[in-house]
Every structure is written in structure tokens, then in C-alpha cells.
Design a protein that fits this description.
Distance between the termini: 79 Å
Radius of gyration: 35 Å
Largest sheet: none
Shape: rod-shaped
Helix content: over 70%
Number of strands: 0
């Protein structure tokens, strides 16, 4: 793994030393030193990952908030434009119709049911079929 290894002395509890002796072959290590080295590298990686976990969610959160903010602004502008067009259409239709208020209330109830049934995907063709009694 590394070219220039240096001997180091570490103090271990007897229970820890016994675990090294019992498990270093299970990890296909040639020696107990290799096992200890792999354990140190693994734990160091774990510590770095903990720091990354503290940083990455904040970074991802900030990025998502910025992207969602732009998307929300765009959807808001589009909904405003759609509302203006819908209001114009309603004024034109209301100025040229003879629908009374009870019929309008019944129509609103039907439209609510249509919206729920189709999950908001109402087609003009379906409405035309209903109005023509087909």
C-alpha cells in the first residue's frame, strides 16, 4: 500500500489486541499491522464522511432552495397570466349568456367533481360531449 513504512508503538487494551488477533485473517490481511492500518484508514474516512454529511446537506439545501425559488417565481408569473386570461374569458361569456345562479351553482359542483375525478386533467372534448348529451 505504502512504500516507506515506519515502525510505531501504540498502546492497546488487551481486549482490543485480542480482537485484532482474532479478526485480521477474516479481512484477508497478511499481518496484524495491515489490519490495524486498514482500520485506521477506515475510521479516518468515516470521520471525513461525518464532516461531509454536515456540509453536503446544507449545500444541497441551499441549491434546492435557490432552484425552487426561481421555479416558484416562474410558476407564479404563469399562474397570474393564466388568471388574467381566464378572467377575460369569463367576462366575455358572462356578458353573452343567460345562465341563472342556481344553474351556475350546479355547474360549479359538477366542475369540482370533474376536477377531482380527472385529477385536474379536464378535456374540452369531454365537456363538449356532456353538453351535447353524447
Amino acid at each position: 500500500m505504502f512504500k516507506d513504512k515506519k515502525k510505531s508503538a501504540f498502546w492497546l487494551f488487551p481486549e482490543t489486541k485480542a480482537q485484532v488477533e482474532a479478526h485480521f485473517r477474516e479481512d484477508n490481511c497478511a499481518s496484524q499491522s495491515e489490519y490495524v492500518e486498514k482500520a485506521i484508514l477506515f475510521y479516518t474516512g468515516y470521520l471525513h464522511a461525518q464532516k461531509a454529511n454536515a456540509y453536503l446537506p446544507r449545500l444541497i439545501s441551499e441549491t434546492l432552495e435557490a432552484k425552487l425559488g426561481v421555479l416558484g417565481d416562474r410558476i407564479g408569473r404563469l399562474l397570474f397570466k393564466l388568471t388574467v386570461e381566464e378572467s377575460m374569458m369569463m367576462h366575455i361569456i358572462a356578458s353573452d349568456t343567460d345562465v341563472d345562479f342556481p344553474t351556475l351553482d350546479k355547474l360549479r359542483g359538477r366542475c369540482v367533481m370533474d376536477a377531482k375525478r380527472t385529477n385536474g386533467e379536464i378535456s374540452f372534448q369531454d365537456i363538449l360531449k356532456f353538453q351535447k348529451g353524447l
